[in-house]
Amino acid sequence: MKEKLPKSRREFIKIASITTLGLNVLGSQNPVMASIQVEKRVGIIGLDTSHSIAFTKVLNGHRHSGEYLGYYVVAAYPHGSKIIPSSKDRIPGYTEDIQKMGVRIVGSIAELLEQVDVVLLETNDGNLHLEQALEVFKAGKRMFIDKPITASYSDAVKIFQASSEFGIPVFSSSSLRFVKGIENIDKSKVLGADTFSPATIEPSHPDLYWYGIHGVETLYTVMGIGCESVVRINTNDTDIVVGTWKDGRIGTFRGTRSGKHDYGGTVFTTESNIVLGPYSGYEALLIEIVKYFETGIVPVQPEETLEILAFMEAADESKKLNGKRVFLDELTSIKRSRN
To answer: What residues have CB less than 8 Å from 163, skipping those under 6 apart?
Structure first.
């Protein structure tokens, strides 16, 4: 049976199809429609993550279909992490893989930026994102920054400040923002939610930044911003983070480091309880990325991304304090005063 597409994606494909039909009928007489159909060159920074290969397969595999508005990957700068073995050891293999798809390998970000229209910043190590993003901003290119947007709340603030200064909107997101079931939720009716994802830890990042961010982003997608405080319960294999929102709602994230690696959750609404999952792949995220590349309109606001980071850093602080309640406003005010 053919899988039914989420409503938002069906609508986007419908719009793209109508646009393609209009271009065929009107030809170059309609410059707006013509601009949408011109192929757009995508550059990738960082071949230390499987996302780079997966995104390229989707975009380049649909280059002529109209589904992704002609955006396809033409060049990549391979160097992401230099210190994380699980990342840097992947670079040679992923470089070979992406070259087989016809993507040019370049020797610097500057060289990449000369050859592309937009950028996917895919470096797995969030510690490098601020430095790399600033090069892209200075070149005047729109850019998607893969999760985690940075390895610290402070660096993320600087990225969004640069975004404002250069007049180039930017966004970051986990693909779990688009997990199955979310598209059917009226967020104004959400009373609370429980989400879960793997939460393997990388010492160079705050605990939940590395992988727990997937489930935390799912939680924020349904709950929205406004978390007041968090409490974290931690063992070697499991994290439970309980967030209390300012309006009294409660959202929880369960991060796992043993058992089956899976993603999902339950959303409690005024009318029903909705199960999220299973994970549905990268396509829905890529649809949002190319819409942003085309329009400059971001699907995730900076305020939400920053609060997601604050939530995760507050969870780290609660762990240090043996599960004591930590208030997000107090944490972020301290960090902003240090910038």
So the answer is: 137, 169, 170, 302
